[in-house]
Amino acid sequence: MDGLRLLGSGSFAQVFEYKSxxxxxxxxxxxxxxxxxxxxxxxxxxxxxxxxxxxxxxxRFSVPDVYAFYNPATDELRRRSAGAGRGEGRDxxxxxxxxxxxxxxxxxxxxYCMDRLKSLPDGIAEEIRRxxxxxxxxxxxxxxxxxxxxxxPSPTWTTGRFINHRDYPLWRDRYEExxxxxxxxxxxxxxxxxxxMLFRLHWxxxxxxxxxxxxxxxxxxxxxxxxxxxxxxxxxxxxFGPSNVHDADDAENDDVDVDNQPARKKMVNSFFDNDxxxxxxxxxxxxxxxxRRGYLFNADHSTTLPxxxxxxxxxxxxxxxDGE
Length: 324
Description:
By secondary structure, the chain is α+β, with helices and mostly antiparallel strands. It contains 8 helices and 11 strands. The protein starts with a strand and ends with a helix.
């Protein structure tokens, strides 16, 4: 199919770019794989609808628009209702034609469609290559998107290390090096924005955020960077009790779930099982304190207590990991 470009391939699915869209298709057809992709699409849709819709920005994270899912077993096309998101002005006729063409070119494969993120602006991309690529890798393509790993310093480079320019890892020390060059927003700002988004995932979308990616790409309209969250195939709903958000010991309130230890455990495990996007929860670290403030920024009377307990739990687990 003309214009269709493979962006990446894993054990489960392939990701293609076509015009202004990205399509994710199962690598091997079958009901089980189709249901896995459908689950990812549904989580994506719930998160997109739940998180406050804000324009892409270099200082806060946003969620790309997700449009439709196609199930080959039932020939069903699930599409969010018109006008239900940031893509209200998009030419839906063209979109449906594009999606139909993708489906036709990959028979028997379940697929869903989302916005294509623009590549990093040339200036910042070239700065990353010049400053951070090893000398023997300077001829490799400049990065188009970066993962923001503020929770760990970079590993030692080896001369033969592979450069993934489509998903380049910016470890904490390397991000801070770019910050010193005034090429990116301060790391403290990014850590705070991560906290704000993780709170929204937990307490608004009620999602455990397992394996969610925090990335830096290009702004859709302006020549600067923008921050996004991606990849919801391992996320799941948090098993809150009747109160949805409470974790209080106040048994006098019948609306309060007096035992949501499983929910908090799920959130804590997801935090540590994820790649190290978030600063490690060490209270002495200013970067973590910025993340912590962001996490509590939107908390209200019903979420402050359980949010603080989550933070206390990850700080305790980090102390255990550090052998304190």
